[in-house]
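Summary of Year 1 activities. Much of the first year was spent building the evaluation harness for sequence design. The harness presents a backbone, in tokenized form, and records the residue chosen at every position. We chose the following record to illustrate the format because it has been used consistently in internal testing since the harness was completed.
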């Protein structure tokens, strides 16, 4: 076992109650702390209780907030805690413009980013261009969409896609303690 997760809190409509989610999330945090394994975290519409739960634990191992779609303020809290931020195909969607702005404004440092697809979710236009004849199909997302995500990040940071790929790969290895 390399990491604990994906675990966290999702207060989206239709999900289990916040109380039930917390009842399961806290022991998962305990497990990661006991085993000293990195945490792959999920948070949606639950930032404050999520942070409170994380801060209630001592000696948290390295953590990555997977599929980040939050605000600049939320990102700052995670970054200040030393967490990595997972960027998915969401950044390639119109709704991802705020993430692009955060990158351009230097609010999401490359040294704390990892790139992920969240496949089969977070599909975007042309994410299947290497697999499908219908290149406008958005779902399901596929692992081969990573270069498109890297390209958008590179454009926002005004650096090469190769540099983004190299740094985020190194970050992922560091986060997962594979180097």
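For this record, the design step produced the sequence shown next.
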């Amino acid at each position: 076992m390399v990491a604990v997760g994906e675990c966290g809190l999702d207060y989206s409509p239709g999900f289990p109650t916040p109380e039930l989610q917390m009842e399961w999330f806290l022991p998962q945090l305990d497990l990661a702390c006991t085993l000293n394994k990195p945490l792959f975290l999920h948070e949606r519409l639950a930032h404050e209780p999520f942070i409170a739960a994380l801060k209630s634990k001592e000696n948290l191992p390295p953590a990555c907030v997977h599929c980040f779609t939050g605000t600049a303020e939320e990102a700052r809290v995670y970054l200040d805690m030393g967490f990595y931020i997972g960027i998915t195909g969401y950044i390639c969607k119109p709704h991802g413009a705020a993430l692009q702005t955060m990158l351009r404004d230097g609010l999401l440092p490359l040294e704390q980013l990892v790139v992920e697809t969240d496949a089969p979710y977070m599909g975007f236009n042309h994410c299947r261009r290497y697999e499908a004849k219908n290149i406008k199909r958005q779902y399901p997302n596929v692992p081969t969409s990573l270069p498109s995500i890297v390209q958008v990040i590179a454009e926002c940071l005004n650096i090469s896609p190769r540099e983004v790929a190299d740094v985020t790969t190194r970050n992922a290895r560091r986060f997962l303690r594979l180097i």
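The mean pLDDT is 94. Quantitative recovery figures across the full test set are reported in Table 2.
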